[in-house]
Specification:
58% helix; 3 helices; binds protoporphyrin IX containing FE
């Protein structure tokens, strides 16, 4: 669905940067408000691990 973007095909750097932006509470799209609470408590390690996992597994 357009409001819930697919995570596949993204570089790890892109996913990391998005999660850092959401963690900081900054909006990047119309529905960032749904994602910001999910990223709020992530550590730097969490973000690095999620980005590595998603970019290598979601094909
Ligand atoms: C492990 C859990 C999750 C991860 C790793 C994750 C990761 C991401 C990433 C990387 C993006 C950016 C996508 C892009 O820019 O193409 C994103 C966007 C988004 N996510 Fe999540 N997400 C998670 C859970 C959730 C949940 C539970 C919801 C629903 C409540 C959600 C709703 C959204 C929405 C609506 C967007 C688009 C926000 C916008 O318009 O800026 N996500 N997510």
């Amino acid at each position: 669905m357009a409001s819930f973007p697919s995570l596949k095909g993204n570089e790890a750097e892109y996913i990391e940067s998005r999660l850092e932006t959401y963690r900081a509470g900054e909006k990047v799209g119309a529905n960032s408000g749904l994602m910001i609470p999910n990223a709020k408590d992530l550590s730097d390690d969490d973000i690095a691990n999620l980005a590595a996992y998603i970019s290598s597994s979601f094909k």
